[in-house]
Predict the structure.
Amino acid sequence: MVQIDPVELTADLIRCASVTPDEGGALAVLERHLAAAGFACTRVDRGKVSNLFARWGAKAALRSFGFNGHTDVVPVGALDDWSVDPFGAEQKDGVLYGRGATDMKSGVAAFVAAAIDFINQTPPEEGAVILAITGDEEGPAIDGTVALLDWMQREGEQMSVCLVGEPTCPDHMGEMIKIGRRGSLNAHFTVTGVQGHAAYPHRAKNPLPAMVRLMDHLASHSLDTGSDHFDASTLAVVTVDTGNLATNVIPAACRSAVNIRFNDHHSGASLTAWLQTEADRASAAFGVEIALQVTVSGESFMTAPGLLSDLVAASVQAETGVSPTLSTSGGTSDARFVKAHCPVVEFGLVGKTMHKVDEQVPVADIVQLKAIYGRILSDYFA
Ligand SMILES: [Zn+2]
């Protein structure tokens, strides 16, 4: 019976320079191990992105436990600031270093090792274990998990529940499970007036007072005070820009952008309508044109606390002695796509060094994460 060392597998994955959208050999490493253990593997590549679908057990299994993760990593950034080779997988004093060490090659390796042990030791009779691993989570995420889910739908592949293995713990192993995420929306405003001499403002139409009023209005508005499982929604003005270097010129146009992180009191559509109303009001008050362009990166979502979060929390508690909190904090993740298919929660390592130089993970945490994932699998099918 083959056993996979999750630390060695993490190191093997780190050595694959899989900066989005390069596969870097990482999915090939996983495919080799999973196929040898009896998983049916399919590469679901789309556009420039490689993805891997692997299933152990029957397609029409009564219950299938899904795992979603990614092998792509963000660029190394300032190479000179690294004290190790970002793709060297160096190990010092019980710590493994490299790009992807926490986000999230270790999470993928821990689940692969746990899943292979599980099907070898206690194969579930009516069950299936599915891995949907993408090579594009850190990039545009258009041909990644979405492509996998599209393909699964076409092929009649189904996950009953799904665990996303992103780092979720702020400081200590076991602290936090994510049961949802806030939504995110970017709005771009362009206010257009008439350019002119600053000494003759009546011959120009300054776009700036309208922009300043509008931004003040948006920034000082309280969207809500939070909800049962979500923090209050936030709005940040991230740029106001004319590009005007002259002090004697009223500029013709001014651009701004705001980012809104929103809870379940709102939707992308309701916020867009509100932004449009505010833009129209400022436009009417100042007699300038205001164009609004909105991109919704993701709606807010949540898997209500229940069977799945209880199962994950109990396994975390049993292996770490820590009772995890259920949170919806942080940025977006691919769970926003999975939620349309099945209940989804996220649990993984401490995320302190993700996307940083000298990204690192204590080796003991990878071993512990494998034990937690293994316990989740056996308890789910018990
Ligand atoms: Zn990640």
The mean pLDDT is 96. The domain at 6-181+300-381 is CATH 3.40.630.10 (Aminopeptidase). The first helix runs from residue 6 to 14.
